[in-house]
Amino acid sequence: MNAEEQKHYFSIHLLDWYRANKRDLPWRRSKNPYHIWVSEVMLQQTRVDTVIPYFHRFTELFPTVEALAEAPEEEVLKAWEGLGYYSRARNLQSAVREVHERYGGVVPSDKAEISSLKGVGPYTSGAILSIAYNKPEPAVDGNVMRVLSRYFVIEEDIMKPATRVKMERLAQELIPEGAAGDFNQALMELGAMVCTPRSPYCLTCPVRLGCAGREQGMEDKLPVKKKAKPPRPELRVVALIEGVGEHAGKWLIRQRPQEGLLARMWELPHAAWPEPVWGTDENSAAALCEALLTEDNVRVTLGKWFMDTEHTFSHIQWNMKVFRCRLGDEAAHPRGAGEWIPFRYRWVGPEELESYAFPNVFVRIMKAWQEVQEERETGSPGN
DNA sequence: AAAACGGGGTC
DNA sequence: GACCCAGTTTT
Q: Which keywords has UniProt assigned to this entry (predicted)?
């Protein structure tokens, strides 16, 4: 078939296949543009199965634009806990507040207006416009680029912005009249269910007869994608600081800075440490105490090693040694007035912990700690 | 154009 | 262990 027939074949058969085979996903049951928006932001760089429970909780906690606009930021962050890329949550709330104030709570259906909202890039704007308003805008994500690169044999590096722009033009051409929302979702559904990254299910593909990549035996080589840089390793020492006296049963936690990695999340105190002293627990523990004192003006006494753990972000790998500690003299000493305070410290007990948002790595450590404590109280089973 | 920005599933 | 996921923002 010629190029035009190939495109037409693709659009028609993909759309039919989608309408007959689409998954029943929570956000597909809604026509609420705000709910669709929430789902699209959650789905950025995140799998469907991971998002589903978060989507239910989030839309229950913040069912409307107004509810999210008026919620305290900490509650929003807590609802996002564990999902990652936390700037998504803060940007979403900021954008929703703008919609609440400037657009009377109505999610804009205009390309320029919606694109100007925080956290709404080319993909998300296209997804909302097409799915919520059925406007013929492309919504090109990783799935779509994989599908198009294979079907049309596009060998440009999909990591390049120029390639995405090219894909968007192509994707827009393919949208069948009046079916933008279904078609865009069909493209992503195919990428997720059939045209998978590895070992695609070509034999059951609804558009296999028009697929140039398949015809040329290239489906395994596409899309072309430059390799990502490996994360840089970092050594970190972590303090599990248990309170005594009036703080008995509580832990000392701190809030991260306003900007940057894990912005405004809460965590166990920890410090980076240079390689030379890494290796023995004694040196690391001593290093931890000294670092917390010099960096945060928090004096802790040397503690016992508790566990080692590892946590990998996209760009950093934390290799962590965790120590049990006690606070030195009195409470934490925030720096003097007028001086920049990089972290805020606070004693919290098990119940209060529920209202603070922690990165998963610290949730893991705290759970491990609680289990050990419970074993001590009940008389340890096993070892 | 490159780096920052989480966390987890999968083969 | 490598790859990748319904990406956006900042540098």
A: 4Fe-4S, DNA damage, DNA repair, DNA-binding, Glycosidase, Hydrolase, Iron, Iron-sulfur, Metal-binding
CA dihedral A108, A88, A363, A295 (to 10 degrees): -140
Reference A239, options A148, A338, A323; nearest CA is: A323
- Which residues of A are marked as active site? 40
CATH number (domain holding residue A105)? 1.10.340.30
CA–C1' A125–B5 (A): 20
pLDDT digits (tens, 9 = 90+) for A48-104: 999 999 999 999 999 999 999 999 999 999 999 999 999 999 999 999 999 999 999
Is A140 found in the same domain as A238?
no
Alpha-helical (H) ranges within A22-72 are 33-42, 48-61, 65-70
Cα distance from N-terminal residue to C-terminal residue, chain A? 69
Q: What are the structure tokens assigned to A173, written together?
A: 């051409």
User: Residue A326's pLDDT is what?
Assistant: 87
Average pLDDT over residues A42-51: 95
Amino acid at A132: A
Q: Is A309 near strand B, with its CB below 7 A from some atom of it?
A: no
pLDDT per position as a tens digit, A4-27: 999 999 999 999 999 999 999 999
Nearest to A137 by CA among A103, A155, A113: A113
Which residue has the least CA–C1' distance to nucleotide C6? A43
- Give pLDDT tens digits for A251-279: 999 999 999 999 999 999 998 886 766 66
Range of the domain at A322: 232-378
Q: Where are the beta strands (DSSP E) in chain A?
A: 232-241, 251-255, 266-267, 270-272, 300-301, 305-312, 316-327, 344-348
Q: How far apart are CA A148 and CA A80, in angstroms?
A: 32
What is the share, in percent, of chain A residues with pLDDT greater than 70?
Answer: 93
Please state whether strand B lies within 7 Å of residue A272 at its CB atom.
no
pTM above 0.85, yes or no: yes
Residues 6+ apart with CB under 8 A from A211: A150, A151, A202, A205, A219
Last residue of a domain, one of A181, A216, A251: A216
Q: Is the CB of residue A150 less than 8 Å from the CB of residue A199?
A: no
